[in-house]
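Sequence and fold:
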Amino acid sequence: MTCPHAHAASAPDAIALDPFVADLDGESARLRAAGPLARVVLPGGVACWAVTHHAEARRLLTDARLVKDIDVWGAWQRGEIPMDWPLIGLANPGKSMLTVDGDEHRRLRTLVAQALTARRVERLREGIEALTTGMLDRLAERPAGETVDLKAEFAYPLPMNVVSDLMGVDPADHPRMKALFEKFFSTQTPPEEVPQMMADLGTLFAGIVAGKVEKPGDDLTSALIEASEGGDRLTTEEITNTLQLMVAAGHETTISLIVNAVVALETHPEQRALVLSGEVPWANVIEETLRWSTPTSHVLIRFATEDIEVGDRVLPKGEALIVSFGAIGRDEEQHGPTAGSFDVTRTPNRHISFGHGPHVCPGAALSRLEASVALPALYARFPGLRLAVAPEKLRNKPVVTQNDLFDLPVVLA
């Protein structure tokens, strides 16, 4: 399935994003070399633009002329983006903080902030520590020298359980949720399955919200239902979409952060030694991983309400823009000539891997908290942990938005 709208990418310098993500680092380098505003083609043949440098991304992420309203997108207006496009759920996921701007965004953000307080996040620490210990206990029971998929056994279930506990999602829903989110993020979901997948996700999360309306608990979904500002409350649609957004972003980002940190340390033994000796704090590992191997490779999508100059190019009115965090994280203009190197001693490390401006990720503190518990505990228990395959054998999932692996085979020691 292809989209007829290709004029923005018809120039020979357009970079087609690989739907299989075979070489994310190489692709990010090409995007960066193309200048701060690059022409790209998304999987499915949908043309848009990408901001690939740090300074320009910071500026555009606070530019009121770029909005989240898909109706501004010329290709959408002309009916050129089919509803069975595999990435439609990421471009048009329904009304939530992610898809509105200005006063409406401030309204939703204020109501969500009432529920997602720093105190509520910090209260999760004890539960995260207990979950982590339990998972590591089970891993320690495995036969010595056995290959373990650290993603499936640790990096995935930890954040999924944490965000489910936070939001009040029944663990019985996890298998269904996992299958639907796999389809939601993948570039390889058959077009004929996309509409049903979107409907099924909506039904699943609407059911969770309905259950909390009937029987509230001490969880974020119940708090969202109760949140009010001057008599204003979130609608059921807003709560459902916010819940879906926070579960999706809340576990995917943290999975990638944990996995990418382990891969970075295992492929940089001198850096690993600095951390395990206590010379460098784990917070440095987390921030350097966020910069160097950012969990989110591309964020979809913003739309230009007028022509916007970016470097020596113009983002035309009505065109779509993605933010290419994978390219931005290694921008030498921001991070110096060693931007391409993983260096846990790097200071300062002012990356924007959780975004910038009004749409900065509301779950950033939770993701950092989980990684700050999980990674030290993992290496304290298994200081001799090593990859079970050569690094080049690690396989990226076909997801253009997440820097994600199929699995992480390791030997625990």
